[in-house]
């Protein structure tokens, strides 16, 4: 283990020789020097890990994801290397505070939300459990946009995460890959009567990899996250330059660089843009070539060994083109027959589904495919023909309806490729991300595929890494847990269940709730600094953090806040514990209603927070720029976790797990992983409300009429009508009407009004529970104690057992 003196020396060395900053106290330079010093230790471990893993017979998984929400790495790496305390002393010797330093540096925000953060948690667990694994992704120049509010409205600005470099990355130009695009396919007639297809691409990009080391917690392993950056194949057009066209001499570079320029900010909605399609292919082509190259360096060209040693996991359908690219390489470069190539694909690929929302299911137009990847389309047609004739029609002879339903190509209107169908046909396993979600994938999304391929569709419930989401982000609670639990709970999270028997212990309750209060004070300071709103740390901190989306129903929370405000105006003596509602959420820039919801919350917040009549019983804050590093401050301070999606819509959720682990009590619907959280903590320690999946289906089948709720529930009517007035936007009536219209004229697609009363009642019960201090402390402790199931190490071991069949590779 690195000692204080060694770390100190390494920091001084980097300050002086890498950064040329010998004597000053520039915190930015000091952060960089510290990160570089720690990276020295990391890289040494990376090299020994690679030597161990790059041996014939070592099976590894390749995780393909367009998104990784890594957050900051300094604190995480120090904790995982178990040198946080030594580094703290070393840094102190040099006149700095490690907590402050860990707050420096931009987040690596190369993702939108849950899917990207899940990928980051999985990498942490894979390295912790010593599994050989490589993450593949895109080295976006700009990650998810930075959010601010102007007059209550969301403003987006570009994210500049590596404007001044990033100390953790290693560029590997020697492993660059070339990526062909566009052009046409030539068909050459062979002497034996067969034809050979030859793709003649017209454009070529270069993919340059940047490696980010992924440090396991108390393990032997440092794996790699390899991110591809696009460049032009030819660096510079000397012809143009010599002719005096200085600006365009860089033209090709600029075009090529746009491919990895920016992360698309649409979650759960496909933009259908050509550049996104090219991004996906660029990423898949680089990754597939890299996987093959690595295999050949170890094994030579031995395809039987390839299937034995290689698992490829597709994180949603975004990297589906990897399947077609693998087929193309096998057939066109290694002379595989179509059938042999397909058989190998089926051994290697597996696919994770993260959504049932129809608007999020990817479909790319056949004409776009034809233009950008003509050879891949040809291969796809053959796959589809085989699939329909040899599988679908064998199971359902002469059933054209089923053929049309399952086909990889959607007909009628513009022809489109159904990416999810290709994934299910090719993968040997398909998993959903929580029990209920996987059940609905089988029942509602792919029932025929489930019948065609029994056992292929399975579940792996999501998880979160307890290292980042408790040990590092909540040091005070971690110290308390260390006192009471003898096992290393950050690895063995189930061991926290030994706290169950102490849940009523007065001393533990006090210590637990004191820490919560300390964390709330720290968040209150942050709220004051970033919004100017002063909140009372003794109030209930009620937190909803997630992307802004109608199905997640921030507007249900909003309506209830407006109702509480109204109740308080009518009766300022209303018995309720003071409450602070705290939001964090980014809306996709093109999602109009989501942005209107943000605006409405901000406008109501302005009014409520400045109304002396309600005596500080209610405050509302919307923290700008929600991201991993802000989540790390909010989650330890939460009393209440809002998980209120329409049943059947949230595949799993992972914020629900993080908040409960930090002692927040959930108010939630029976949706996604909430159901499994309720099973773990028991009905007494969670507030469940709202219609179930079955009830939602029944309501919709009957013909849902939101007006009936508006007319029959006086509070709903009063609240919605209030939004049409200028009460919250003086001089501008109807400014907040968009929410009302979406719920009434828009048909309330996510059943906000149908669940309103039940939600309001659950909040009432929650308020009463909070006022019983012992009862609440017990609930909070039990939530922390009983989250063992949601350790992402358990999820990874499920993937290993059910899908990947890999083994730990230790010293
Ligand atoms: O994936 C989310 C689901 O909505 C959550 O329920 C689930 O817990 C997590 C992890 O499984 N999905 C996303 O976050 N999806 C995206 O971010 C996304 C991004 C691009 C395109 C489509 C969806």
TrEMBL record:
What stretch or stretches form a coiled coil here?
none
Names of the cofactor(s): pyridoxal 5'-phosphate
Q: Which reaction equation describes what this protein catalyses? A: [(1->4)-alpha-D-glucosyl](n) + phosphate = [(1->4)-alpha-D-glucosyl](n-1) + alpha-D-glucose 1-phosphate
InterPro entries, per the entry: Glycg_phsphrylas (IPR011833), Glyco_trans_35 (IPR000811), Pyridoxal_P_attach_site (IPR035090)
Catalytic activity, EC: 2.4.1.1
Provide the alphabetized UniProt keywords: Carbohydrate metabolism, Glycosyltransferase, Pyridoxal phosphate, Transferase
Q: Does the keyword rRNA-binding apply?
A: no
A Pfam family name for this chain?
Phosphorylase
Q: What class of enzyme is it?
A: transferase
- Top-level taxon of the source organism: Bacteria
Q: Does the keyword Glycosyltransferase apply?
A: yes
Q: Which PANTHER family match?
A: GLYCOGEN PHOSPHORYLASE (PTHR11468), MALTODEXTRIN PHOSPHORYLASE (PTHR11468:SF25)
Its family? Belongs to the glycogen phosphorylase family.
Task performed by this protein: Phosphorylase is an important allosteric enzyme in carbohydrate metabolism. Enzymes from different sources differ in their regulatory mechanisms and in their natural substrates. However, all known phosphorylases share catalytic and structural properties.
Q: Please state what the protein is called.
A: Alpha-1,4 glucan phosphorylase
- Gene source species: Thalassotalea loyana
Its taxonomic path starts at:
Bacteria, Pseudomonadati, Pseudomonadota, Gammaproteobacteria, Alteromonadales
């Amino acid at each position: 283990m690195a000692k204080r003196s060694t770390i100190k020396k390494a920091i001084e060395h980097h300050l002086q020789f890498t950064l040329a900053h010998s004597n000053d106290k520039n915190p930015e330079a000091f952060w960089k020097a510290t990160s570089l010093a720690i990276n020295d230790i990391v890289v040494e471990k990376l090299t020994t890990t690679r030597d161990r893993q790059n041996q014939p017979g070592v099976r590894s998984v390749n995780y393909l994801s367009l998104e990784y929400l890594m957050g900051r790495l300094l604190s995480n790496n120090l904790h995982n290397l178990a040198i946080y305390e030594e580094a703290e002393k070393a840094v102190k010797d040099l006149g700095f505070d490690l907590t402050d330093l860990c707050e420096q540096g931009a987040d690596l925000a190369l993702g939108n939300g849950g899917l990207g953060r899940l990928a980051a948690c999985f990498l942490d667990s894979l390295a912790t459990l010593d599994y050989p694994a490589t993450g593949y992704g895109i080295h976006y120049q700009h990650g998810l946009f930075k959010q601010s509010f102007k007059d209550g409205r969301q403003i987006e600005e570009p994210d500049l995460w590596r404007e001044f470099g990033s100390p953790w990355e290693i560029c590997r130009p020697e492993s660059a890959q070339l990526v062909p695009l566009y052009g046409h396919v030539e068909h050459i007639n062979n002497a034996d009567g067969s034809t050979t297809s030859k793709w003649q691409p017209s454009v070529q990009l270069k993919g340059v990899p940047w490696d980010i080391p992924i440090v396991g917690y108390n393990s032997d392993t440092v794996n790699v996250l390899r991110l591809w950056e696009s460049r032009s194949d030819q660096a510079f057009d000397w012809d143009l330059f010599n002719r005096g066209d200085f600006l365009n001499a860089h033209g090709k570079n600029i075009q090529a660089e746009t491919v990895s320029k920016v992360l698309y900010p649409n979650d759960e909605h496909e933009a259908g843009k050509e550049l996104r399609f090219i991004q996906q292919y660029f990423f898949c082509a680089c990754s597939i070539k890299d996987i093959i190259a690595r295999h050949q360096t170890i094994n030579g060209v031995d395809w039987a060994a390839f299937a034995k040693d290689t698992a490829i996991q597709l994180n949603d359908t975004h990297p589906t083109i990897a399947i077609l690219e693998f087929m193309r390489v096998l057939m066109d470069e290694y002379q595989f027959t179509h059938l042999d190539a397909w058989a190998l694909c089926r051994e290697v690929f597996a696919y994770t589904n993260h959504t049932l929302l129809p608007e999020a299911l990817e479909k790319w137009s056949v004409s776009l495919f034809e233009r950008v990847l003509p050879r891949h389309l040809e291969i796809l047609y053959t796959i589809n023909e085989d699939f329909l004739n040899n599988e679908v029609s064998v199971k359902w002879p002469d059933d054209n309806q089923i053929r049309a339903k399952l086909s990889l190509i959607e007909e009628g209107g513009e022809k489109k490729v159904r990416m999810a169908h290709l994934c299910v046909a090719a993968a040997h396993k398909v998993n959903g991300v929580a029990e209920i979600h996987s059940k609905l994938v089988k029942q509602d999304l792919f029932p025929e595929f489930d019948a065609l391929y029994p056992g292929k569709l399975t579940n792996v419930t999501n998880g979160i890494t307890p290292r980042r989401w408790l040990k590092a982000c909540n040091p005070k609670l971690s110290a308390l847990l260390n006192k009471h639990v003898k096992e290393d709970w950050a690895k063995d999270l189930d061991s926290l269940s030994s706290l169950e028997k102490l849940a009523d212990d007065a001393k533990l309750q006090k210590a637990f709730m004191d820490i919560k209060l300390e964390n709330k004070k720290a968040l209150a300071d942050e709220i004051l600094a970033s919004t100017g709103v002063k909140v009372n740390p003794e109030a209930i901190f009620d937190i909803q953090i997630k992307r802004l989306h109608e199905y997640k129903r921030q507007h249900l929370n909003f309506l209830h806040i407006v109702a509480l405000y109204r109740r308080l105006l009518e009766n300022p003596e209303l018995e309720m514990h003071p409450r602070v509602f705290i939001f964090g959420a980014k809306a996709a820039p093109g999602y109009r209603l989501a942005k209107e919801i943000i605006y409405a919350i901000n406008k109501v917040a302005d009014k409520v927070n400045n109304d002396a009549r309600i005596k500080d019983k209610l405050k509302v804050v919307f923290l700008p720029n929600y991201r991993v590093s802000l989540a790390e401050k909010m989650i330890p301070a939460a009393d209440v976790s809002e998980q209120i999606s329409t049943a059947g819509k949230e595949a799993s959720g992972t914020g629900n797990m993080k908040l409960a682990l930090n002692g927040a009590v959930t108010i939630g619907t029976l949706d996604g992983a909430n159901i499994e959280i309720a099973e773990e903590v028991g009905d007494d320690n969670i507030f469940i409300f709202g219609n179930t999946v079955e009830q939602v289906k029944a309501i919709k089948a009957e013909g849902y009429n939101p007006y009936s709720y508006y007319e029959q529930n006086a509070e709903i009517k009063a609240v919605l009508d209030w939004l049409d007035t200028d009460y919250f936007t003086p001089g501008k009536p109807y400014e907040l009407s968009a929410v009302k219209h979406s719920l009434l004229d828009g048909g309330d697609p996510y059943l906000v009004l149908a669940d309103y009363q039940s939600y309001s009642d659950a909040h009432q019960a929650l308020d009463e529970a909070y006022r019983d201090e012992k009862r609440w402390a017990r609930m909070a402790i039990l939530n922390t104690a009983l989250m063992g199931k949601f350790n992402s190490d358990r999820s990874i071991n499920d993937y290993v057992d059910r899908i990947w069949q890999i083994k730990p590779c230790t010293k």
